[in-house]
Design goal:
It is a single chain. The protein is an alpha+beta fold.
Length: 105
């Protein structure tokens, strides 16, 4: 029984440390300079699956705390699963997320 418990504990630890990025293929990000704040801001973008093969216009949702929206590895309190949810309902929407600036912003 001790061996099984030890093996399960090791698997749980390995799985949690090897989690890596959990964002979907529809998510990308880039940084912009914010000289007024003496910092740079990371912007996350979710595009619907049909975006590259369509010429239609999509509604845009702007969200704060982007580090929590799409990726468990960048979230401090757990991913909000925005991309997985939008993918699962085949949402035809663009999401723009701006990361929180920490204590400074």
């Amino acid at each position: 029984m001790k061996i099984i418990y030890s093996l399960l504990s090791c698997l749980i630890i390995l799985n949690s440390s090897a989690q890596g990025s959990s964002s979907s293929k529809q998510v990308s990000n880039f940084s912009i300079e914010a000289p007024q704040l003496n910092t740079s801001k990371k912007i996350w973008v979710y595009l619907p699956k049909s975006y590259t093969s369509s010429s239609k216009k999509y509604p845009v949702i702007y969200m704060h705390d982007a580090q929590n929206l799409f990726d468990a590895s960048t979230s401090y309190s757990g991913e909000w699963n925005i991309d997985e949810t939008l993918d699962s309902i085949n949402a035809q929407v663009i999401v723009i997320g701006v990361e929180h600036g920490g204590e400074r912003e």
